[in-house]
From TrEMBL:
<dbReference type="GO" id="GO:0000214">
    <property type="term" value="C:tRNA-intron endonuclease complex"/>
</dbReference>
<dbReference type="InterPro" id="IPR024336">
    <property type="entry name" value="tRNA_splic_suSen54_N"/>
</dbReference>
<dbReference type="InterPro" id="IPR024337">
    <property type="entry name" value="tRNA_splic_suSen54"/>
</dbReference>
<feature type="region of interest" description="Disordered">
    <location>
        <begin position="164"/>
        <end position="187"/>
    </location>
</feature>
<keyword id="KW-0819">tRNA processing</keyword>
<dbReference type="Pfam" id="PF12928">
    <property type="entry name" value="tRNA_int_end_N2"/>
</dbReference>
<protein>
    <recommendedName>
        <fullName>tRNA-splicing endonuclease subunit Sen54 N-terminal domain-containing protein</fullName>
    </recommendedName>
</protein>
<dbReference type="GO" id="GO:0000379">
    <property type="term" value="P:tRNA-type intron splice site recognition and cleavage"/>
</dbReference>
<feature type="domain" description="tRNA-splicing endonuclease subunit Sen54 N-terminal">
    <location>
        <begin position="48"/>
        <end position="112"/>
    </location>
</feature>
<comment type="similarity">
    <text>Belongs to the SEN54 family.</text>
</comment>
């Protein structure tokens, strides 16, 4: 163990910075001494390169502190590319969810401490299993390894509500300002006001019909509460985290045959020995009589 540690320390102190290549491949062995010496030097250099241990420097990993009362990890040291696909930033700093924290620790890109004690990968798995669920993390981990960015769907809905509330507030302020100044009142024709009132009456009628009429629903249709994550493709540069490309549902294998998708962007993740992803859609199969 001491020999391995010594070797890793030495390889870390003296990394291989340059690899000299001979250029064109030699298909035939030459008999002259210069060619033989060139081949031997290249073989020796390759052996040295393969025996060199790849050691990750500690300063290449970020650092965070796990907060059990808030169930998040607060990042204290950020490294390059850490917050591009993971975490969110608010007035309290950069926050990582349990699944993001565990994935970054597994990928050797983050060090997490709790009460100044470093957490192992097993400790991070215990946190994820307690707060999220093992199968949900497996689906998250597989997609994150392929470069996808995942955001909890409830957070996406909250962001959409905030955007809508902000838009409605700004629109209401502009309307109030226009009414106070008296601008635009004389410009609206009478027919536009009448059409708006008629449209409100028609919408109220349809709303009452919708409430009184019998409703038809499928018990297995995916709802917002069933969706776990919004999945963003690697080339999706949406910084607000609202317009996701797919919606991910982690489900049981026995329930997969009964599920129906109400949109082409729904993906089902089934966790058995491996994690598999499926898409389901409503299909009307014609009835056929066989003689």
């Amino acid at each position: 163990m001491n020999e391995l540690a010594t070797k890793l320390i030495e390889d870390n102190k003296s990394p291989l910075m340059k690899f000299e290549n001979v250029g064109s491949k030699l298909f035939f062995r030459c008999d002259n001494e210069s060619s033989l010496k060139l081949v031997d030097d290249q073989v020796h250099h390759l052996e040295k390169l393969l025996s060199h241990s790849r050691v990750t420097r500690r300063n290449a990993r970020g650092q965070a502190t796990w907060c059990p009362e808030k169930k998040v990890a607060k990042v204290s040291i950020v490294t390059k590319g850490l917050i591009q696909n993971f975490g969110c930033q608010n007035k309290n700093g950069i926050i990582l969810l349990p699944e993001e924290m565990c994935f970054l620790v597994e990928m050797n890109r983050l060090e997490v401490t709790q009460n100044e004690i470093p957490l192992s990968i097993q400790d991070c798995y215990d946190i994820v299993t307690e707060n999220l669920g093992f199968n949900i993390y497996r689906a998250y981990r597989k997609l994150a390894q392929h470069g996808y960015r995942l955001i909890r769907y409830e957070d996406i809905l909250n962001k959409k509500d905030q955007e809508q509330y902000k838009t409605e507030t700004q629109s209401r302020k502009r309307k109030t300002t226009t009414d106070e100044t008296g601008e635009g009142c004389s410009k609206k024709p009478l027919t536009e006001t009448v059409n708006r009132l008629q449209l409100e009456v028609i919408n109220n009628i349809f709303e009452r019909i919708k409430q009184a009429a019998p409703s038809q629903s499928s018990p297995h249709e995916s709802e917002a509460r069933d969706i776990h994550y919004g999945v963003f493709l690697p080339n999706n540069k949406c910084k607000r985290g609202i317009n996701c490309d797919y919606r991910l549902i982690v489900c049981n294998e026995n329930l997969l045959e009964q599920l129906q998708s109400d949109g082409p962007d729904i993906i089902y993740a089934v966790c058995t020995d491996d994690v598999s992803f499926y898409q389901a859609a409503k299909v009307n199969i014609p009835f056929c009589d066989y003689i």
